[in-house]
């Protein structure tokens, strides 16, 4: 039930630091395994398990217990000609080992997302794409970049929670109840892998829906 | 009252496309000027004004009417050794031309943010930093990455609006009123350049506050 991380050491350490900060804030802890063919980075946070080996090989991923992992994050490694191809290979190999693994891939080229998703990744996101979109938002709605950065890295979080306490309620009533019960703000519903942000007041919360909530971590 | 964009053509065109999409969605239009020492990119969207010249030079920025622009976005250009230095230079030169210009800089190295902010940028954000943090969030709160991407690029938007209609109301009452008046969800308050996400119910909206709202663009 651990997360396995592959990819270029500097990117991996940035991600691991963000992950550790978030675990500390949320109280949700998960073991982290970092796999690389390079030497163990001296600044790898302790408590992170390090596996040395070529992460495109099945043997290496099995040594990282990918068969028992809950998630795999693949970050780019190498130049723009080879990094996404390497990521694609890693997705295919990891998927063959563990059909229920949750795989998130970061790509250098957004156009490769469709191939990586077809090969078995659950999410694919291009490096810098969020930044680009956030900057465009900032020009039109000044302050939104700060709001997004604050949302992501500050003492607030976007949570996704089970809706069972709220099924049968309208979105409007659920908004009020979530504010009272969770000190959070309900912003949308995750239904059949689709995200409904700010749906109509009359939308009824159904079994299986998940609720997307924004919450300040300072107010418990 | 236009926006000037500097930086590597491929990044600039991605940003310009995101900006045009957002203008179409929001109905808020702003003229775009792209400045580069390279030839005009063949895939530059029409209606974007192109200025050829070295954007680190005062003369070039004056030709782009930076003195009358409302915003300047600087994207990285060049390798990791030189791109942020170039950006720093452009911030300094643009700030000397226009003290009220709103300057957003995208950096290759997050550690350079402090220098660029000291030199006069209003916002500085590292390429990929949002992606890294969003992926870390996804491991802890599965579904949040999709929610963030959907928020940023889907038919929903984070808006920042004037609070004058709502001053004197508690956050809790403003939440209900914003839902009714704007079909949006109030998630926080921008006060003195500080972002308060999901503050206490009792926080009173003050003159000068701005409201951060999440809204679906499909529901007018
Ligand atoms: Ca956070
Ligand atoms: Ca959008």
Task: Write a structural description.
- 2 copies of one chain form a homodimer.
- Chain A has helices spanning 9-26, 58-63, 83-97, 113-118, 129-140, 144-153, 171-182, and strands at residues 3-6, 32-36, 49-52, 71-74, 102-107, 123-126, 156-162, 184-191, 194-197, 210-216.
- The first copy, chain A, has 220 residues and is α/β, with parallel strands linked by helices.
- In chain A, helix 1 links the parallel strand 1 and strand 2 (32-36).
- In chain A, helix 5 (129-140) crosses helix 6 (144-153).
- Chain A starts with a strand and ends with a strand.
- The site of one calcium ion (CA) has 4 residues of chain A, from helix 6.
- One calcium ion is lined by residues 152-154, 157 of chain A.
List keywords for this structure.
homodimer; 220 residues; alpha/beta; 6-stranded parallel beta sheet; 4-stranded antiparallel beta sheet; binds calcium ion
């Amino acid at each position: 039930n651990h997360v396995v991380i592959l990819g270029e050491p500097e990117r991996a350490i940035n991600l691991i630091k963000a992950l550790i900060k978030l675990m500390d804030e949320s109280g949700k802890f998960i073991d982290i395994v970092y796999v690389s063919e390079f030497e163990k980075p001296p600044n790898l946070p302790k408590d992170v398990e390090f596996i040395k080996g070529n992460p495109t090989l099945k043997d290496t991923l099995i040594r990282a217990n990918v068969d028992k992992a809950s998630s795999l994050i693949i970050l780019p490694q190498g130049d723009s000609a080879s990094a996404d191809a390497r990521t694609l290979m890693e997705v295919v190999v990891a998927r063959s080992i563990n059909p229920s693994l949750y795989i998130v891939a970061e790509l250098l080229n957004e156009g490769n997302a469709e191939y990586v998703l077809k090969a078995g990744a659950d999410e694919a996101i291009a490096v810098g794409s969020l930044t680009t979109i956030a900057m465009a938002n900032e020009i039109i709605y000044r302050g939104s970049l700060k709001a997004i950065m604050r949302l992501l890295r500050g003492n607030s979080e976007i949570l996704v929670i089970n809706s069972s306490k709220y099924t049968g309620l309208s979105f409007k009533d659920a908004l009020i109840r979530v504010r009272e019960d969770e000190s959070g703000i309900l912003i949308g519903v995750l239904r059949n892998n689709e995200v409904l942000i700010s749906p109509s007041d009359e939308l009824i919360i159904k079994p299986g829906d998940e609720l997307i909530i924004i919450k300040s971590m300072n107010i418990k």
